Amino acid sequence: MGALDFLSDYFSNNFDVSIRKRKKHKVMQTVNIKVKIDCDGCERKIKNAVSSIKGAKSVEVNRKMHKVTVSGYVDPKKVLKRVQSTGKKKAELWPYVPYTMVAYPYAAGAYDKRAPAGFVRKSEQAQAQPGGTDDKLMSLFSDENPNACIVM
């Protein structure tokens, strides 16, 4: 038995490498938060609080849309808590999607008159049902359908 065999047995018995915990790597993401911003002081306070989060690469504050955008290796819940710690208790994750992404933008759950221009609220009622009657009727009079109405 050589010295290398002795060392390999010694390290494998005394130091188990597989038990070590591996650190999870956070994913680069963009977090959007809706928060009411009234003045320059509020904007500055939120920007300073959020930019001090570990992993935050860029922070953008849009006062007109009441939106804070944070990009980096951050957790959305931690960003939301940090914004709420500045005194903005009604802060929430961005609840809106672009108008063009929703099948029925004027459905009861989707339409929000306080939403910024071009956005509607995310909701299940506004999404199209796969294989629903609307899809069948639209494909019936489609240009790609060879059996479509001849009158068209």
UniProtKB/TrEMBL annotation:
InterPro entries: HMA_dom (IPR006121), HMA_dom_sf (IPR036163). The keyword Metal-binding applies. It comes from the Eukaryota. Keywords: Metal-binding. Residues 28-91 form the HMA domain. CDD domains: HMA. This is HMA domain-containing protein.
